[in-house]
């Protein structure tokens, strides 16, 4: 089989073929030929000796592998993926990202936000509340790697993708996506500046975007600032396991703040 021929190229996998060597010997003797597989491990080393060998394909290896070893490793990884022995990390991250977004929809009491901050029960109000919580998720996601190709950046894109997928529910809203997208990008920049600065800067960002510059009750703005600070702190304290692998986000209720 193709996978068997590929596995024979790797020192760490040769021991897996040990039971097949006696059969190969019998075939050689009966057909009077020499098969290439017989050079794999005729004199088998003890298991302890095999374990003591340096494995070039482990994540803990400190050595530098050659281009040939790297190419062979990629071939083996593709073979193991085909037979379902290697989990697809990107698929797992995508699922986790959608679960994180769903935690916003499931655990956020939108009606409480509408009532406490005098917001009309409209799609725009729903989007403002969702946008704020998604931004907080993006902050935590980027802590897992902000560069292109890293887990954090990939999760950020998947969370945003889930938000837009949930937002586009009618043809009328689809026409607003471009405008909402521009507003969303501007909100992210303003919120990022606010979270890295003092409360006055964050309050200004929330007043401009969340309250649409239409709130004269400073107590409400102060309450929302406190809510954001506590939620960001809670997310920052989550381990990689709790956030990325098995998402468990204990969002705090606005009523408790």
From TrEMBL:
Residues 115-246 form the Ubiquinol-cytochrome c chaperone domain. This is Ubiquinol-cytochrome c chaperone domain-containing protein. InterPro entries: Ubiq_cyt_c_chap, Ubiqinol_cyt_c_chaperone_CPB3. Pfam families: Ubiq_cyt_C_chap (PF03981). Belongs to the CBP3 family. Transmembrane segments: none annotated. It comes from Glossina morsitans morsitans.
């Amino acid at each position: 089989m193709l996978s068997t021929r590929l596995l024979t190229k790797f020192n760490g996998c040769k021991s897996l073929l040990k039971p097949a060597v006696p059969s190969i010997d019998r075939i050689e003797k009966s057909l009077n030929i020499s098969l290439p597989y017989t050079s794999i491990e005729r004199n088998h080393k003890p298991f302890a000796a095999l374990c003591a060998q340096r494995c070039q394909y482990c994540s803990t290896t400190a050595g530098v592998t050659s281009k040939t070893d790297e190419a062979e490793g990629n071939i083996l990884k593709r073979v193991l993926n085909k037979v379902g022995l290697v989990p697809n990390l990107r698929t797992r991250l995508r699922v986790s990202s959608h679960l994180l977004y769903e935690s916003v929809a499931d655990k956020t009491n939108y009606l409480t936000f509408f009532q406490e901050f005098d917001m009309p029960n409209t799609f725009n109000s729903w989007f403002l509340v969702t946008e704020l919580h998604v931004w907080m998720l993006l902050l935590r996601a980027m802590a897992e790697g902000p560069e292109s190709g890293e887990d954090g950046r990939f999760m950020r894109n998947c969370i945003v993708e889930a938000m837009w997928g949930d937002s586009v529910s009618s043809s009328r809203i689809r026409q607003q996506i471009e405008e909402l997208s521009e507003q969303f990008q501007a909100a992210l920049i303003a919120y990022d500046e606010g979270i890295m600065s003092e409360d006055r800067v964050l309050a200004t960002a929330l007043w401009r975007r969340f309250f649409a510059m239409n709130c004269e009750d400073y107590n409400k703005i102060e309450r929302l600032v406190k809510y954001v600070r506590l939620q960001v702190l809670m997310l920052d304290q989550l381990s990689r396991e709790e956030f990325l692998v098995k998402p468990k986000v204990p969002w705090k209720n606005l009523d408790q703040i």
